[in-house]
Amino acid sequence: MALQTDLSGKTAVITGSNSGIGLGVAEILAQAGADVVLNSFTDRPEDHVLAADLGKRHGISARYVAADMSKPDQCRALIEAAGRCDILVNNAGIQHVAPIEGFAPEKWDAIIAINLSSAFHTTAVALPMMRKAGWGRVVNIASAHGLTASPYKSAYVVAKHGVVGLTKVTALETAEDPITANAICPGYVLTPLVEAQIPDQMKTHNMSRDQVVRDVMLARQPSKEFATVEQLGGTVAFLCSAAADQITGTTVSVDGGWTAL
Hints:
Largest sheet: 7 strands, parallel
CATH topology of the largest domain: Rossmann fold
Shape: globular
Distance between the termini: 35 Å
Number of helices: 8
Radius of gyration: 18 Å
Strand order of the largest sheet: 3-2-1-4-5-6-9
Order of helices and strands: EHEHEHEHEHEEHHEHE
Strand content: 15-25%
Number of strands: 9
CATH class of the largest domain: Alpha Beta
């Protein structure tokens, strides 16, 4: 069995993919030959240029479809607009930190909608397409917080635990089809958003960059190293390979040992 993943002829839809983890996943899947549909809630010229550039660099079809993942009808319309969905990567997510008694209800509702409910809606439309095509992969980007918890992140932790549960149900409902469903549980990932937080943390704690990364940002990540978007993309590509045909309904931690504690 060849280890190299060839996804030529497959179409991947990645939610929340005009930056960060989603864009990193799209890059790796495009390198493997998949056509890709990028997504976010904005509809700017640069979003469409981003997709066009991705397609040109990798010789695949790439386009951008705007859809607000907080709205069920737009979640479903995204998959319908793709026309085909062999690989669904549910990645869209937001965060808000506050104690339970001070957690704004509208923030709770938004996090549950975008981080959890959107995955249900996209999956519901994608599965019939996968069954018709005779092959499919659902990869949900959960979190280490889908397996453990932290204070002040109630909505995020609940949503990510829910994503893990939805993954298991999806796997059981497709167990006799050539379709798999798995969740990737990253720890802290070095994205542009995270990188931008480091200078402020250096000032706040009067620490060097290395100290802030090791002792503040990665305090719970035993490896003391960020995961990268390329590593997450590689993990998604592996789950799309023939080597992963019998891997379904499980979680893959990319967290530097966080959940081993």
